[in-house]
Design a protein that fits this description.
- The complex is a heterodimer of chains A (441) and B (349).
- Chain A has 441 residues and is an alpha/beta fold.
- In chain A, 47% of the residues lie in helices and 15% in strands.
- Chain A has two domains: 205 residues, D-Maltodextrin-Binding Protein, domain 2, CATH 3.40.190; 200 residues, D-Maltodextrin-Binding Protein, domain 2, CATH 3.40.190.10.
- In chain A, 52% of the residues are buried.
- Chain B is mostly helical and 349 residues long.
- Chain B folds into two domains: 80 residues, no CATH class; 243 residues, MetI-like fold.
- The chains are: A alpha/beta (441), B mainly alpha (349).
- At the A-B interface, helix 3, helix 18 and helix 19 of A face helix 4 and helix 15 of B.
- Chain B: InterPro entries: MetI-like, MetI-like_sf, UgpAE/MalFG_permease.
Amino acid sequence: MERVERLMPAKIAAVAAALLFAAACGGGAPEGGNAAAGGELDPADAPENLTIWVMGSAQEPLNDFLQNEVGGQFQETYPDTEITVEWIPWDGYADQFQTALAAGEGPDIVEIGNDQNALWASSGALTDITELVGAWDETPNLNPEMLEYAAYDGVQYGVPWYGGVRTLWYRADWLRELGYEPPETWADVEEVAEAIEAEYDVPGFGAPSRFQNGLWSLIWSTGGELAVQNEDGSWEGQIDSPEAVEAFEWWASLTESEISPQSYVGENELIPLADMANGQLGMYIDGSWAIGQMEEQNDEFIEDLAPGVIPGRDGMAPAMAGGSNLSVWANSASPEFAFEFITLLNNQENAARWSELAGFFPAYPALLEDERYQTDPMLAAGARQMTDVRFPPNTPNWAYATQDLDLFHVASLRIAEGEDAATVLGEVNAELTEALNRPIE
Amino acid sequence: MANRANTANTADTASTGADRAGAEPRRGGPERPAASHRSRRERPSSSRRRFRYGPYLLILPSLAVLCVVLVWPIIQMVWISLHSYTLRHLNSGSPEWNSFAHYVSILSDGYFWRVFANTIAVTAIMVVLTMVLGTLVGLLLHKLPRWFSTIVAVGLMLAWATPVLTASFVYRWMFWTERGLVNYLLQVLPDWLVGSGWDDYNWFIDAASLFTILILIVVWQSFPFVAVSVLAGLKSIPHEMYEAARVDGAGPWRSFWSVTFPMLRPLFALILILQIIWDFRVFTQLFVLANGFQNRDVFLLSYYSYQQGFAATPANYGMGSAIAVIMTVLVLVITAYHIRMMIRQGELR
């Protein structure tokens, strides 16, 4: 409550600024970021330090960009503010968040995985920035679906920073020699995989059973849904539909027909990733970030790898829209300045630079039309995939159902082990419905 | 918890000691304190009374430390288990009393009872195997020539002294799918003996196979302790008793049950109870083998408690504590039963 009160004057100022700005522009396209809501902030009030938590392991160019370039831009207006960039490894990040939260500490600005937004928002880790976002002049240019997914329960907790999608990684040299285009339908996957196995004597396609984001894609590609929300707010699982059954069955059939090795049952993408890096696999589905990990393991075949879109039943499957938001941490002492930094870091120019450096896709649809996303073969497939993305249900219980209960893997494992898909999914769907409607303590 | 059992023993020894000084006949527990008070009051000599404060003064520091590091956290744990206490409450707002909601939801949850049954079964198998194997090896050590017995004992102690984490990782690697030693050997062995398809076999998915490895690690690391304890006990039994048994025509089986076991009964009782308590709480080995909290089929109570309290989304401290409270009560019941038995048999004298 205190937090909200503290924010009020800034919010009023922000709304006022937005109204003035809207009046000045008269509905035309906004230009530049100078008239942002935060322009009203007095540099004399700026804090001595703003800390930003970025996910992943520190990479020098990225750190340099955040610390020196964007930090430098910020200091042009607020010369007394030091910018501290801290890198939080994805592995075990939740512990760090919890500890900071419990101690009443933490950063000012934080990167939040977009599918974790509901979880941390409902845990009280993030500041309500609805009005600041509403007043920011770049907001209308952001991808509206990504923006909506950064809200929870009608409150905006973040702004989308970048997007990432899974793609099909394949051995471009082998497909070229065999005379195949990268497969975009399920039938094509089977055909190409069998040809690879016949010619090169390695498995043609990797279908690990622990593959939930990928399974969502397959379900969406058959026209199925994961879960729907009723008007009273309750959720209903949809993975017992014939469409979902078809998707699960196809995935399991790849193991059964020995297109994908039996040893991938029970594993996630990391095992096919290692095999791919070592030249022991023809194709598998993983994020654009996987290329870096493969290179670390073995760079011998790295030049021969190329991405394609995720194959669906009849053509490109919608991808689960991965990516991250920028949020203001609940314990930030100066939330207005934290948001001011976000507006600078995430303006179109900096967002484009960041995406380029980090190998992701900007959250501004206009930027995706840039030529480099059409011509660079390493980017083109992902950029095309970015045009068809979907989001999982926006409730903190989604993390509970998919991480704690691991329902998608339970289902896919049981089907891979030979159980009847319709029966399994009937049971698992009942569990999914129950989990999504779990009261939040 | 081993500590707790020991302290409980010490405390009881102290009180029975007081009883003995009071020359009161010892019967059931509840009357004992009253009895010792009475006897104290009846003592005329003030020097005797001052003397008896001594032991209490001596254990006072350790009691104080125990209160700080054990009793207070347990009180906290019980308090947390009775409130809605998640990540959200940690940061803002105070935890709310939820009228036993955690206990109600756990005790009516089929999944909890499945974990509970698994925990009891796995613990029972571990304890039985450890006791039997440990005793047999102890007897073997006793029969071996001294130099050889020393070598074997040193080997055993190495297994016992290996850090739990190290041992768990070694076993995980040995059973690794495709690349593990065990799968390799099973694949190399003839198919008519062990079946085929072992190189692909994943030991860590199915609960039965994962628990098998878990039991293997735990037994491998705990039977040396039993063996060495039994050996020490055996050395204290006079030779004459075995000679007498032999003269009476007793074979090895009979002389074990008629001489060794009765003589070592207190020792076996103590080791048994310690094994139950230790094996009941197994966590580290499972943490390494299960490699995360995704596979809910392989949870044991301690693991479930940790998952709820720290790895759930969002972390639910209340629920984790409720499970921990249930575990603590179980261990206390076992310990209390054990102490009662020992007092009955007069082993604490």
